[in-house]
Amino acid sequence: MFALIIGLIAIVLTVVIVIAGIYYGGSAFDTSGAKAQAATYQTQGDQVAGAVMIYEEQHAGSLPASLSDLVPEYLTTLPIPPGQTATAWTISGNYVVSSGGISEKSCEQADTAAGLSAIPACSSASLQTPCCSE
Fold it and tell me: What is the DSSP string of 32-92?
């Protein structure tokens, strides 16, 4: 009988600990996915931007006609953003941009990591703005 009571107490304590972990740690699990996606976009954007800068330096200041001109000399392949099946990176003026696919939480995480307090409009964004809204 004593073993049965100890077993039940152990089960109840385990359930309480699991529920507390989900309640108090749930936001950490929620934001970690957004941080990972933001970091992936930032890294991929930096890779493409670096390849464009090297191309521009080696071609007398001219930008590539398309990003496929960077493969295979400057990039092994064009990076594919998370959740997409093909590359969405393009050159727009002096920016390397990805058209869509990033969640608002990931956008907020990228801007927070860059020291911004809110997601700026794309019309007022600078080169140091990792994410903007239209």
Answer: HHHHHHHHHHHHHHHHHHHHHHHHHHHTTTPPPSSGGGGTTTT-SS----TT-SS--EEEE
**Rounded to two decimals, what is the model's pTM?**
0.63
**pLDDT of 121 over the 80 cut:** no
> What tokens were used for 113?
């990591």
Rg (CA), the chain: 23
Q: What gap in Å lies between CA 88 and CA 115, rounded to an integer?
A: 25
pLDDT value at residue 21: 76
- How far CA 27 is from CA of 31, 55, 56, in Å, comes to 6, 42, 43
By residue count, the chain amounts to: 134
Per-residue pLDDT for 68 more than 70?
yes
| Phi, psi dihedrals of residue 109, rounded to the nearest 5° | -65, -40
Nearest to 109 by CA among 30, 31, 47: 31
